[in-house]
């Protein structure tokens, strides 16, 4: 639910920025300043509500991720070895030479907030947040926020393979009508079922998502989220003052550039969610390699290019309609024509 509301409310933010950007263009045409100010006010309030709630649900989502997808959280921060009072990286560069078990730094040239990740994940400034290597070794945090040793990923792979073997043996016993063997293999399967998906992996390192892409997309999303909070506060401050700064060229550039930036922010959030959960289609149960269908590659490519063509046509049509309506609104005289 946190993920759902985080995504939906970010759409309010995107809509608010779009309305503000269009209003800035209308103000530039000099005809409808009052109408544009009112439009900007609506966009500002909707966008501010959207970004505040998006940030709130984003925090709750991060807490969920810390409990259910700790490997994703570690990749989001480029964290390999956790510690108590883990810092939150604000800016940094992922070290391409870093592997789980060498001595290289995971993130270099970084600026970090002391204890920030511990607060984000557990609401406790001195709590432990496991890193990628810790998780591979079986060190994690339970629901109470306590550091515990669980099953290492190497052992999870072995137990997952055993679970798959028991499932195959159960099927064979069922085909043979051997109820005793069915019961025995069903019980054995239940013991290792939570590791079932790990049996498809060839090595523990295969369970690590693409760290660089997850790290950068997460930090782009967070940085732009902070920017849009300031953006909407500034918009509303200037609108209610009817500040002349809204008539400047610099403001128009900021408003126009913010439209593609809010789209980039939204897409960066999806990249964080989808790339960060790799290699899982279903967490701990089905990795990508086990989800491949028997549909031929030619059929997949044909379907893909059909979608590309169709949605490109839709995109061109939508942009054309929007541009026409925006231009029409900018040339009208709403401030002096009450009928409109």
- Number of contiguous helices: 10
**Order of SSEs:** HHHEEEHEHEEHHHHEEH
- What percent strand? 5-15%
Task: Describe the strand arrangement of the main beta sheet, using strand numbers.
Answer: 1-4
C-alpha end-to-end distance: 41 Å
Quaternary status = single chain
- Structural class by SSE content: mainly alpha
The general outline is: elongated
Count every beta strand, where a strand is a DSSP E run of 2 or more residues: 8
Mean pLDDT: 89
Largest sheet: 2 strands, antiparallel
Helix content: 55-70%
List keywords for this structure.
340 residues, mainly alpha, two-stranded antiparallel ribbon, 10 helices, 8 strands
Please outline what is shown here.
The chain has 340 residues and is mainly α. 63% of the residues lie in helices and 9% in strands.
Q: Could you please describe the fold and organization of this structure?
A:
- With 340 residues, the chain is mainly alpha-helical.
- Helix content is 63%, strand content 9%.
- The chain has helices at residues 2-28, 33-68, 70-76, 116-122, 132-137, 153-176, 179-192, 211-241, 249-276, 297-331, and strands spanning 83-84, 88-94, 107-113, 128-129, 139-141, 147-149, 280-282, 286-287.
- It has a two-stranded antiparallel ribbon.
- Strand 5 and strand 6 (147-149) form a beta hairpin.
- Helix 2 (33-68) runs antiparallel to helix 8.
- The protein is elongated, with a radius of gyration of 26 Å.
- The mean pLDDT is 89.
């Amino acid at each position: 639910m946190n993920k759902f509301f985080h995504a939906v409310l970010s759409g309010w933010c995107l809509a608010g920025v779009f309305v503000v950007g269009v209003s800035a263009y209308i103000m530039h045409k000099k005809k409808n300043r009052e109408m544009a100010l009112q439009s900007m006010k609506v966009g500002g309030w909707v966008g501010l509500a959207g970004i505040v709630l998006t940030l709130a649900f984003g925090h709750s989502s991060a807490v969920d991720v810390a409990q259910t997808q700790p490997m994703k959280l570690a990749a989001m921060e480029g964290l390999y070895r956790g510690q108590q009072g883990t810092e939150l990286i604000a800016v940094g560069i992922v070290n391409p030479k870093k592997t789980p078990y060498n001595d290289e730094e995971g993130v270099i040239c970084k600026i970090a907030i002391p204890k920030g990740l511990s607060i984000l994940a557990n609401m406790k400034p001195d709590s432990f947040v496991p890193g990628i290597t810790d998780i591979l070794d079986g060190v994690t945090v339970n629901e109470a926020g306590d550091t515990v040793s669980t099953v290492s990923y190497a052992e999870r792979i072995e137990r997952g393979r055993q679970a798959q073997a028991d499932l195959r043996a159960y099927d064979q016993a069922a085909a043979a009508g051997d109820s005793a063997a069915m019961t025995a293999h069903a019980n054995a399967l239940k013991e290792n079922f939570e590791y079932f998906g790990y049996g498809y992996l060839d090595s523990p390192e295969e369970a690590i998502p693409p760290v660089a892409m997850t790290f950068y997309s997460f930090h782009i999303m967070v940085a732009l989220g902070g920017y849009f909070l300031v953006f909407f506060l500034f918009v509303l401050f200037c609108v209610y003052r009817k500040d002349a700064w809204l008539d400047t060229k610099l403001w128009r550039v900021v408003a126009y550039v913010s439209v593609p930036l809010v789209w980039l922010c939204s897409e960066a959030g999806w990249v964080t969610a989808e790339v960060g959960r790799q290699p899982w289609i279903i967490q701990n149960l089905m990795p990508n390699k086990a989800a491949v269908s028997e549909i031929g590659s030619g059929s997949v490519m044909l379907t893909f290019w059909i979608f590309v063509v169709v949605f490109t046509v839709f995109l061109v049509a939508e942009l054309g309609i929007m541009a026409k309506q925006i231009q029409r609104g900018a040339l009208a005289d709403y401030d002096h024509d009450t009928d409109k």
